[in-house]
């Protein structure tokens, strides 16, 4: 039993004995005592003030005295207003460490067939360009959130919706057709997604030149955009695609296949995956069908030009276009179609969309429409709205080719990790294969950790140089500490130092702080799942690593002559390494055993 469970049960018994109040232990949530107060664990006593008919201070005093008398884990206590701060008896922390060591999946809750089924959608790339820095944050947040929700006892389905149709896809296709000269990934030596992205940029370049020419002939910007022959061709291509024109469909399939091969390579390197992938080309017709059903049922309306709309003024919003006058669908329609297919494929209890905060309005509308169309989880869908990520130089634009491609970014991070590690002497004596492996692990770990340690709801600036630092709140700092612990444990094993009985040892201040930090892990995982925040896990692991480094600095391990004390410290090291690895795995980050 964990220390929190022991204290909760003891408090439950205390209030029953003192005030005759039945409070289940699971309803009592002990918290870590704030640093400015004495104690290890704090319990809020306000819930029992009314039954006791006494002041919060008096209730805290009575419960504290009862615990001190009846619960061996409690050494002393103090009361600050309605907060009971409990100091756990030093020797009792050994049993807490023993509980951690004896719990195979410490901090993780296993799901069963009755656990909630949660679907997490992330990535959502367009097949007209490669993944970029913004996608990297999205993928890392989505994958980590899915892993955390799984660790909280949910059944989780990781899903992706690929935006593989629409006017933006036609722009790349048209540019390839006009100026591609038959280029392929093989003939150019380029990854397929990068090749197609080049044509998207090329279309925009020619389009802008065309607009400039029309404006110079006396047209306004709006008139030029309406008259653009290039854009007209792209729109005609989209209509042909929707009418299943064989030539256009064949070109589309060929170019998309190049992009998918490129995406798969990037996803694999990034360490993210999906259980189910949906394609807008397969869902948009389902969406049109569902919207037309809603129209028939009087939930939507049609304008004179034939377009279909939803009136959301009753919900304090505006009117939302769902089908254009030419019958083509918009993103909202496609999302409705995807929802229909997902609901058909899985009995979802909760749907979480990992999408940037610039789409807040979109998901507000989607929730209302899905509810209106009869999806039971529509009203409760979660838009995991995260902030934008920029570079120190500022914003990125796909059309202008100023984005930072995910592949280039990962290459740069691994190269920087190799350089920094080499300069610090951390690669000395390693084989070329080990150097490659560690550089990859450290570079990608730095990238992932830097993006995940920030509250996901905040906009952030990604600074590659800051992220690869072996000191401070970074991935490499955590990875290096993990490797250091592994080295200590290897040396202990080589010297035949087994972990024996340490129950009689009275742990010191740094040891207690470390055990308590480890004991906080399960509650941190639950909190991260409830608030959808991988940042809680990242910053918990960083604090744990700091606590271990203080312990490592102050407490001798391998040179300790008392075998019981050494056993306690070795077990502490072993469990710390284990929790670091588990926590980093929840973030999708690998930790190397040698560094």
What does this structure look like?
By secondary structure, the protein is α/β, with parallel strands linked by helices. It is built from 22 helices and 14 strands. The protein has helices spanning 3-19, 49-52, 56-70, 93-102, 133-151, 167-179, 185-188, 192-216, 221-227, 229-242, 246-270, 280-296, 331-345, 360-372, 406-423, 432-452, 464-467, 475-494, 509-519, 521-531, 534-554, 563-586; strands spanning 31-32, 41-44, 74-80, 83-88, 117-121, 155-162, 276-279, 301-302, 308-311, 319-323, 350-356, 382-386, 389-390, 460-461. A 5-stranded parallel beta sheet has the order 7-6-5-11-12, sandwiched between helices. α12 packs across α13, α15 crosses α16 (432-452) and α20 packs antiparallel against α21. The protein is globular and about 90 Å long.
Strand order, sheet with most strands: 7-6-5-11-12
Oligomer: single chain
Rough outline? globular
Determine Rg (CA atoms, Å): 29 Å
CATH T-level fold name of the domain at 407-586: Isoleucyl-tRNA Synthetase, Domain 1
How many strands, which pairing sense, and closed or not: the largest β-sheet? 5 strands, parallel
Low-confidence stretches: 396-401
- What is the CATH architecture annotation of the domain at 407-586? Orthogonal Bundle
Which band does the percent of strand residues land in? Answer: 5-15%
**What is the CATH class designation of the domain at 407-586?**
Mainly Alpha
Distance between the termini: 35 Å
Which structural category do the helix and sheet elements fall into?
alpha/beta
